[in-house]
Amino acid sequence: MRDSETPVLCPIPPGFVAPGADGAEFVPLLALGDLAPGTMRRVSFGDLDVLVAATDAGIVVTDDRCPHMSAPLSLGTLDGCAVACVLHRGTFDLATGETVTFPTTGGLDADGVSHAPWNPADTGPKPEPSASKASARALTRTRRLRFYPTRVEGGVLEARIPR
Ligand code: FES
Fold first, then answer.
1. Is residue 90 assigned to a domain?
2. Residue 55, in any domain of the structure
3. CATH number of the domain residue 93 falls in
4. Is the pLDDT of residue 5 over 60?
5. Which of 10, 47, 84, 94 is geometrically suited to a Cys-Cys bond with 57, CB 3.0 to 4.6 A?
6. What is the full DSSP assignment across 32-88?
7. What's the helix, strand, coil split of the chain in %, to 5?
8. What integer pLDDT is reported at residue 4 of this predicted model?
């Protein structure tokens, strides 16, 4: 949980700014008081959905799309700085942008390293996929998260959102 010692805004890891965000205008997202520590919200701008998360390291704004197969991260759970995706159990660090737990489907990581599929302990083994589906899974890359620069103005959280 965030406390008085935790910075309000989490710094973006070097090189992890979302494409087009650096030169974009700041736009309001929500009142700071509307985001309790340890919670997440989805905010949409046209077809761009962003995730606002109050992590243990401060507030982050990133795409509300899993870096694996684009499921909404806002439907998952937040534990400290780690958001868990509901679709294939991937877990991602919102402070570093890195994968913590690889998705159950396996596939390639951001550096192109291959990961095997795995079965969660609370589910039975799944039937083997077709050869084409297994190939698609194996070649699906789980990327690093990208972030939108943030600031607080008059108690309102703003972010640079490309339009
Ligand atoms: S879509 Fe999120 S882990 Fe697969």
1. yes
2. yes
3. 2.102.10.10
4. no
5. 10
6. GGGS-TT-EEEEEETTEEEEEEEETTEEEEEESS-TTT---GGGSEEETTEEE-TTT
7. 10, 35, 55
8. 53
pLDDT at 2 over 50: no
**Probe target for ligand 1 pocket from 49, 62, 69, 118, with the most ligand atoms within 8 Å of CB:** 69
Tokens of 61: 């704004």
Question: Which residues are paired to 28 by β-bridges?
Answer: 158
Q: Give, using CA atoms, the residue closest to atom 1 of ligand 1.
A: 69
Range(s) of the domain holding residue 34: 26-120+129-160
Nearest-CA residue for ligand 1 atom 4 is 88
Task: Check if 103 has its Cβ closer than 6 Å to any atom of ligand 1.
Answer: yes
Q: Evaluate: CB of 69 within 6 angstroms of ligand 1.
A: yes
Tally of domains in the chain: 1
pLDDT band at 125 (very low <50, low <70, confident <90, very high): confident
| Minimum mean pLDDT range among 72-86, 90-104, 120-134 | 120-134
Residue 42 placed within a domain: yes
Does the C-beta of 84 come closer than 6 Å to ligand 1?
no
Residue 104 lies in a domain: yes
Ligand 1: centre distance to CA 3 (Å): 30
For residue 152, report the distance from its CA to the centre of ligand 1, in Å.
Answer: 31
Tell me the C-alpha distance between 46 and 147, whole Å. Answer: 18
